[in-house]
Each structure stands twice: as C-alpha cells, then as structure tokens.
Amino acid sequence: MPGTSSKNGTLFIVATPIGNLEDMTQRAVRILGEVDRIVAEDTRHSAVLLKHFGIATRTVAMHEHNERAVTPRILQQLQKGEHIALISDAGTPLVSDPGFRLVRAAREAGIPVTPIPGVSAAIAALSVSGLPPDRFVFEGFLPARKPARRKRLAELAAEQRTIIIYESSHRISACLTDMCEVLGGERQAVVARELTKRFETIRLAGLAELTAWVASDPEQRKGEFVILVHGREPAARDALPDEARTMLEVLLEDLSLTQAARIAAKLTGASRNALYKLGQELQESRKA
Predict the structure, then answer these.
(1) Burial grade of 200 (CB within 10 A; 0-12, 13-18, 19 or more)
(2) 155 and 204 share one domain
(3) Is beta strand 11-14 parallel, antiparallel or unpaired with respect to 84-87?
(4) CA-CA distance, 78 to 7, in Å (whole number)?
C-alpha cells in the first residue's frame, strides 16, 4: 500500500463526517478504498457512508461490547500484513468511541498507527462557541445517574479552562439543570446541537437561560449535543494585598524582578505570578 513500509500492516484511524457528507476528506475516501478491511463501530450505519462514496471494502464490527474480544483477531491480521482502517459512527475515532484497546495493542506490537484527520464535534463546537479556545478540557459524556453527574460537576466547578461535554437527547435537559444548580446559572455556556446537519443550532448564554430554553422547546431536545462551559474566573486570592505590593517595590530597588517576586511571595503568601506581573507593570511605568 502506498506510504507504508513495515512488514506489518498499518492501522489507519480515519475521521468521518459528523453529519454533512461534504466534510469527508479525499484522503479518507482513498484510504478506505485501499485498505484490506474496515473496522466500524456499527457496520449498518457505516454502510450508508461507504455506499455514498462507492467504497466496497469489507467491514467488521467493533463496538464497546466486543472490543476486548475482537482486538486480538484484528491485531493478528495487521501482523500478517493487512492494512486496516478504523472508523466510528461519526467524527474522529476513540473520542468517546471504541478503539483505544486496539490502538494501544497495535503500538505495543510495533504496528504503525496513522491518523487520517478530519471532523471532531468537540473541536468544531469549540471553534464557533465564542468561549476561550486556547485552553480547554474534554470530559466526554458525564455519568448518566444524577448523583454521580452532580459529583463530577462539583469536581469541575473550579476548572479554569473551557469545559467540553457530550450529551444525548434524552439527558440534555437533566444535564443542563444539574449544571445550572452546581456551576451557577450565570456561568456562560454554549449548547451546540446537530452540528453540520440541517437543524444545527448553536446558542451562547448563561446556564439558567439555556436550561429554560431547552426545557421550553421540545425541538431543542432532539439530536446530538455538545455543551461548552466557560471556565471559572481566576480566584480572588490572586489579588495582591498592600503589604505584598509595598514589599515588591522595595525589593525591586536592589533585586531582579524574578528574585523580588519570589521573595515577596514567600514572605507574604501572595501569588508569585501576580507579583511578577505587577513588577513588570512597575518597571514599564518607571521607563515611561
């Protein structure tokens, strides 16, 4: 197969569209047509995609219930030199989908694993959310049961990065209600529904407003969801007391900024990063 040189086969991790078939890449179509077999989360579901692109490669099912049993057989086929592609029902495989055991086993066996990148619902939603995209944490699906879900949300309450969560249609309302109660109704969030599909909906608002909106409109409880939540603002403890400010100013007369910030933080318990930032501002003002 072009682009491979190992005596083993290659395992290709192929991203597929999350709704709009026009998002399928040319490389993904080519690879799926060239490999010896395709490992799919649901062969019946993937048959629609493969038929659309005229791909006749044979498929084998691997899902959460049989992944442990199927992985050794696929590994043997790769070791015999077969090239195999792994796809999920939609989007990038392994992201809240089966495949981790297979990829891990292939790497441990020295089998090349190559990504064929494409759509990811999490990244697509983040890119249009209007929430800070530079630092984020992907949580996947929260626990289905309310007590466990609320416990996990409480653990995430102090997270300062944007939080990305997947949710299903039959739990979206309950999930938003718990988010509102645990994280606070004023916390900014985004509900992204049916991304790239006909009824795509993306809304940015406080959690209280989003919860009421979804609860009042049955149409907004249909489809597949990505929820993004603004991270918590930096804690008030980063504010500098007058004592720390005064000490920093004195130390800067004889020490470097790094030394002054470190010593002032140690003696006062104030944030070293906040002291360093203040020191930079003081130095700039002195130059002016």
Answers:
(1) middle
(2) yes
(3) parallel
(4) 9
